[in-house]
Amino acid sequence: MPxxxxxxxxxxxxxxxxxxxxxxxxxxxxEVTAQALAVLREALARTGGPLLEVREELVGGAxxxxxxxxxxxxxxxxxxxxDAVLLGAVGGPVWDTLAAELRPEAGLLALRxxxxxxxxxxxxxxxxxxxxxxxxxxxxxxxxxxxVYRELGSGIYYGQPRRTEPLPxxxxxRAVDTMSYTTAEVQRLARLGFAxxxxxxxxxxxxxxxxxxxxxxxxxxxWRRVVSQLAVEEFPGVRLxxxxxDSAAMELVARPRHFDVIVTGNMFGDILSDLAACIxxxxxxxxxxxxxxxxxxxxxxxxxxxxxxxxxxxxxxxTILSAAMMCELSLDLPAAGAAxxxxxxxxxxxxxxxxxxxxxxxxxxxxxxxxTAAMGxxxxxxxxx
Length: 385
Fold this sequence. Notes:
Isopropylmalate Dehydrogenase; two-stranded antiparallel sheet; alpha/beta; 14 strands; ten-stranded mixed beta sheet; Rossmann fold; globular
């Protein structure tokens, strides 16, 4: 077994495998992660990458059913020891009646906290072959390519106090959730967004849009001050604009090509990046990476979709593209990541579609609607090419 503190690069040079913790989760999670893992192995084989040592653990509803906890200690340990974590999805209506701390989503939030994951990176790209899969007009989404940097470790999802309490005299109940941010929490997320915009990598254009609700919320007023100061002191070459979250939501669908790098808080980022899925054609097309002090976790942004679980119809491309991000951001394997992206693009160009991206009005190449496994196979075959 390689030393726990050795880097992926040093182990690769020594011929040791990279350690991946696989959390398939609930619903369609096992189906899409199986395809992503198969594509990842194929990409490494084709690009001369290292071997993988995959350790599978439980999370979410599956973990609760097996252990009574949505996040067992063994899962936390495996994630902290891994070079990267690949997650499917958690949740489903069968667990909705559990106490809040036992629900699958609580396990995911606790895992993010245990791994100190504070930055969620969600690239949004409309592939030319999918302009007709979007509910927006093709001329609006064609060429759209931006990335959302969502703060992940604080905000309203973690703030205290949070409680539900009865009101006196039979007046019903009152629920309290607290949003809070510190200067340091805003800085560490915004710094990553500014650095991405300044890098010029992957088509970035040097524009940061910071999204808040500073006309109403004290948290957002602090957010805006901190981001503005960071821009002046550390990133004078990056253009910064501010937007309120309500107007930004409108702009995302009215002129998505305007955006380059978005930085925003936990709840706003959660909502806006799901909205942005309509630009890419489907939630099944959006990957993500969550980075922090205790490792990195890669997952599609879609949910567990229990209504289609086990039917071989889920789109695995978001999870496959999450594996590509893993190669680039955690494993220092840019060639493998680029190969996966290129194989996905070729499969789409050649007309392969899962049902969620089989858009109306497509012209040109014959469209072939396939299932989860067949889409994964199509990507692997194009890796072989």
